[in-house]
Amino acid sequence: MSRTGTAMRWLARGEPHLPTGTTWLTPAEAQRAAGMRFTKRRTEYLVRRLAAKSAVAAAVGIGTSPDDLGRIAVLNRITGAPYVLVDDVPLGLDVSLTDRAGWGVCLVGADLGAVGCDVEIAEPRSAGFVSDFLTGHEQALVRAAPDEPAGHLLANLVWSAKESALKVLRTGLRRDTRTVEVHLDPTAQPTADAWAPLEVRTADAGVLPGWWHRDGPWLLTVAYAAPGPAPVPLEHPSALTRATPTHSWLQHPLVQP
Q1: What's the pTM?
Q2: What is the pLDDT of residues 6-35, one digit of tens each?
Q3: Could you tell me the domains of the chain?
Q4: Which secondary structure element, helix H or strand E, spans residue 183, and what is its range?
Q5: pLDDT at 3
Q6: What CA–CA distance (Å, rounded) separates 49 from 69?
Q7: String of b and e for 135-146 (b: at least 16 CB within 10 Å)?
C-alpha cells in the first residue's frame, strides 16, 4: 500500500537539551536508564527518548515541561520497533528513532507502516570499511567521487541508508550489509530545506524507497517498505542545524555514582 499522502515529521534533540532529574521519564524508563553502567549507552538511550517524547509532544500539542514529557512512554514491541503511549493510552502514532554522537532523531507520524531512519556524520571511512561492508556498485559510487571529502560523504550516506533499510526489514546488523544495495539519483541533491530520493534494492523484499538529507556534518536517511513522502521538520530551523557532534562519554566511560 502506498503512503504517499501520509505526513511524516521529524525532530532532533541532543545532550544539551537533556532535562535535569528524572521526572521527564516514566518510572520504567528511569529504572532502565539507572541500570545502564556505561555512559555512552545511557546517553544514547536518553537522547533517543528525549527526541521521541519531544517529537510526539510537538505533533499532538502536549507541553514540553519535564512533567508533560513524563506522561509520554516510549516502549518497544517484540520486534524492537518503538511505539508510544500518552497517559497509558496509544495514540496510533508510529515512531522511528536513531542517535549518533550525542544527538537523537525521531520520525513520527500516523500509520507509517514499516519505516527506518538513521543519522550519521560525514566523517572519514577507511578503504577497508568500504570494501568490507559495501557492494561493488556502492564501492564504485564512492570511488567515483571527485575528491576525498565527497567520497567520505558518500560512504557514510550509503552506510546510513543501509541502516535505515535494515530497520525496515527488522534485522538490523544481524544481516550482511551487502545484501541490501543503495542507489542514488545523481541529478538530485538535497538543500538545507529539502530531501533527495534514494532507493535500497534487496533480493528478497523488493525495492525500499527512501530519502536523504544533509545538515552541516549530519546525514539523515529514511527508508520505507512502501512509497512515502519526504519528512517535514517539526521546527525551523532544525536543532541539527546548530548541533555539534559530541562524545562526552569519553571523559567518564562508566556512569559516575
Answers
A1: 0.91
A2: 578 999 999 999 999 999 999 999 999 999
A3: 1-113 (3.90.470.20), 118-237 (3.90.470.20)
A4: strand 180-184
A5: 40
A6: 10
A7: beebbebbeeee
All three cell numbers of 161, joined, read: 541508508
User: Considering all CA atoms of the chain, what is the largest pairwise distance in Å, rounded to the nearest integer?
Assistant: 53
Roughly how many angstroms between the first and final C-alpha of the chain, as a whole number? 50
Q: How confident is the model over 47-65, as a mean pLDDT?
A: 94
- Which residues have CB under 8 Å from 21's CB, separation 6+? 66
Beta-bridged to residue 90, according to DSSP, are 85
Task: Report d(CA 190, CA 122) in Å as an integer.
Answer: 15
What ranges in the chain are assigned the alpha helix state H? Answer: 27-34, 39-60, 66-69, 127-133, 136-143, 148-168
Nearest-angstrom CA–CA distance, 104 and 213? 15
Q: Is the dihedral of CA 13, 14, 15, 16 positive or negative?
A: negative
Q: Which three cell numbers stand for residue 83?
A: 511505539
Let me know the angle formed at the C-alpha of 51 by 198 and 181, rounded to the nearest 5 degrees.
20
pLDDT one-digit tens code per residue, 62-115: 999 999 999 999 888 777 777 889 999 988 888 899 999 999 999 998 866 688
SS3 14: strand
Grid cell 555514582 is found at 257
The cell for 119 is 543519522
